[in-house]
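Bench log, entry 3. Co-assembly request; chain sequences pasted below exactly as received.
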Amino acid sequence: MVTLADVARHAGVSASTVSYVLSGKRSISASTRERVESSIQHLGYHPHAGARALPGGRPRVIALMMPLRTDVYVPVMMEIALAVATTVRARGYDILLLTGEEGPSGVRRIERGALADAVILMDVELDDDRLPLLRASARPAALIGMPADTSRLHCVDLDFAAAGALCVEHLAGLGHRDVAVIGEASAVYARRTGFAERTLDGLRTRSRELGVRLLHLPCEGSRTVAATLTRILEQRPATTAFVVQNEAATEPLLTLLRRQRLAVPGKVSVMAVCAEQTAVHASVPLTSIAVPAQKMGRRAAEQVMAQLAGERNAEGEVALFEPELTVRNSTGPRSHETS
Amino acid sequence: MVTLADVARHAGVSASTVSYVLSGKRSISASTRERVESSIQHLGYHPHAGARALPGGRPRVIALMMPLRTDVYVPVMMEIALAVATTVRARGYDILLLTGEEGPSGVRRIERGALADAVILMDVELDDDRLPLLRASARPAALIGMPADTSRLHCVDLDFAAAGALCVEHLAGLGHRDVAVIGEASAVYARRTGFAERTLDGLRTRSRELGVRLLHLPCEGSRTVAATLTRILEQRPATTAFVVQNEAATEPLLTLLRRQRLAVPGKVSVMAVCAEQTAVHASVPLTSIAVPAQKMGRRAAEQVMAQLAGERNAEGEVALFEPELTVRNSTGPRSHETS
DNA sequence: GAGAGGTATCGAAGCGCTTCGAGTGCAAGG
DNA sequence: CCTTGCACTCGAAGCGCTTCGATACCTCTC
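Structure output for the full assembly:
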């Protein structure tokens, strides 16, 4: 193992000089810098991670807490995680992966063990039990997802309320008056996940404003889509449009509608709030509002980087992405035949 | 921050005694141990991660290198990753997440920086460029996936060759004589991913033995399934069974067959080598061989743990899981009508 | 041309932890 | 009773790195 002392010896300077070349915290003459840098190259020196973390030093690691749940759509989580990893890596940081299972005790472990310089939490609930710890801590942090109280926190999310509103506007603009919402599994609402609840708020508020009748039903998974659809058509036979926020339900829904001879978008319109990929690859390409997973991951990473760079903003910052609606083949004007 | 010295002071012993209580490397009297342990509890002591990593010490971190690719099925990767994370966490280790993008230089970084005690690599290619580094290194390692040369390596994988063979056996047993294989994207074969190639070997060998005619076509994604199916039916109109090893293609294939009035399993049989979830939730529940993602992750984690515990096996160990075929609703006896 | 101020470098201390060698006290053995 | 060996504990050294003075030299300025 090559140490800093080896580099110093090779370059004919003291260890501290090498350290300052590396950190840039004191001025170094150009000639010395070059000599040291070439020694580093030549010996293939890499700082020892543990030693770097020692005094008040930064381990150059970001902790990322990822959910273990199976009721969230995994590819989106993954895309976020990889965007975070790529972004921080570009700045010389590594990612420590924690599972959501660990909850507050995971945050405490990071804190106590000085394992990481900053924390990024995914799958944040409206009233998340990890937040008090985060607020009490001096450690930079960012949330992906928005809790109810965002004071003194840094958050990144899609503006799901606006997304909900945008769905209603689009459908109302096409003449639809009866819209059904096929939502996430009831467990997702039960544990008060922000995005699901906010989307619903947006849908409801705008529906009321535009005089659209809205029926919302949670949907447990792909197997229960049929039952959900049946209930919708019984309770609201006049339904001509569906908003789906449940990755597992989109394709089964399209299949069922096809089987029932409800042409999309001829007879009924379908739109989704989902991953771009899901919408594009559906058997009927779906008009959708995409969850900007990659952007969110990158932005959260940048938030903690900025905090680490000393641009501490004690007030926090909420970065909400504007929803963008992409019209594809699954929505059209309301059909006036009775279904 | 509570340090080991604080604990020592509180317990009225020396720092080294506390250290020995923690590591168990020397005998400690019961009374002292109790006193120290209660001080640890009382003060909420957590060892400082950096300091622990210092001398020859173990940082208690496992590096996990995960692919960034989009042509692998993400949920399986995720399941493996989370199984690894959960398993090592139970033993007090943390996970450092690297992206596959980093390639060999990522491995080198771990090595040089002493960032992790061991490495687990996912998405291993037959002739992976990270392997020479691993072999040269003293650091414990495990691969998820099997390279061509496994000497001195620890690997975990499903026995994909056996899986391929098992598929053919099952279909031949039902009387099928013309089988089409819808495979992964051609890029997957091009970069010589072990699992795809081995499955194909198994399929081909057993087909030859059992007198089954086999046609293999790669499939780029869900959009190209139709073209692939057309080519199959043109080249081998007698085809009565399909083996799918491509998560994105399964559902579109079922939809297409339905549209062409090829009842499953009445007219044609379909089976898959895929995630359990995909098979169960398909519109026709699929006879399948599941990829035991969770088991693989856990086993790889256990392999490195064993190596860390000193059970170093310089010869390596290849843990191949026996494929298990679950019969569902998608395979049946060959129909003797002409399709 | 002496002090002020700046730049470039060094030595030493110390971060929290592990580990080695040494030391204490005690029981058993000669 | 003295040695031997064992069980237990301590002090000190040192891991690789950062950082804080201190030092040496150089360039201005009055």
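Chain A has a mean pLDDT of 90. The domain at 4-47 of chain A is CATH 1.10.260.40 (434 Repressor (Amino-terminal Domain)).
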